[in-house]
Amino acid sequence: MMPVLVFDIETVPDVAGIRAIENLPAGLSDYEVAEWAFQQRRASHGNDFLPHHLQRVVAISCVLRDAQHFRVFSLSEPESGEGEIIQRFFDGIERYSPQIVSWNGGGFDLPVLHYRGMLHGVAAPRYWDQGEGDYHDSRDFKWNNYISRYHSRHLDLMDLLALYQPRASAPLDDLAKLMGYPGKLGMDGSAVWQAWQEGRIAEIRDYCETDVVNTYLVYLRFERMRGHLDAAAWAAEVETVREALGRIDAPHWKQFLAAWPQG
């Protein structure tokens, strides 16, 4: 069984980067710098979504499922800085060569990790292998790698389910709830910057973790639909997730399970 690594990132504006690029006055607060950048973006693009290279990574949450275990974990501040968070994520790919799964990872998460990883000198040779590496199975990566859009080592569920048509894409929260899963609880991506400024870093991490479990549960439905799991295997895997979360003594998982009725 190839390990499966489902991932999600949370970001805040790279205030230091905006200061450096725009040569802004030193007296501006972080809040003022970010608001200036949001206003500039709204004027030029009609929304305040900052470009990928100015998104600072503050959390990466993962589900790792291998033949023995189901684990949920996070790499996040304040325990680690941005460069260490990103390096540890790519170290996991180096170690396991997993199937990686995301929701809009091709459109957001991975491009952000590319830019921010380069800024910090992150090494990710396995991730970038396209058949020319020194690994024993590198030749296989020529035909199936993490980078090429239609290869499957990275499965962007949002992109694939929409058949690569942006107008057909669905929000993860909506799809999870339609399937009977909890969806987003207490926070969404638009609230992360405010939470960061208020020092609610643990809440950001917890939100990211619940998002990645929602993604894994939707992925299991997809595995059932495409015939990789039959009904019994799918039900058993869903129960594995429920039992694993029940063993974690944390409020966000108690809330998640309470919002996920049995049956």
UniProtKB/TrEMBL annotation:
One of its GO terms (molecular function) is nucleic acid binding. SUPFAM superfamilies: Ribonuclease H-like. CDD domains: DNA_polB_like1_exo. Coiled coil: none annotated. InterPro entries: 3'-5'_exonuclease_PolB-like, RNaseH-like_sf, RNaseH_sf. Residues 47-260 form the Predicted 3'-5' exonuclease PolB-like domain. Pfam families: DNA_pol_B_exo2. This is Propable PolB. It comes from Thauera aminoaromatica S2.
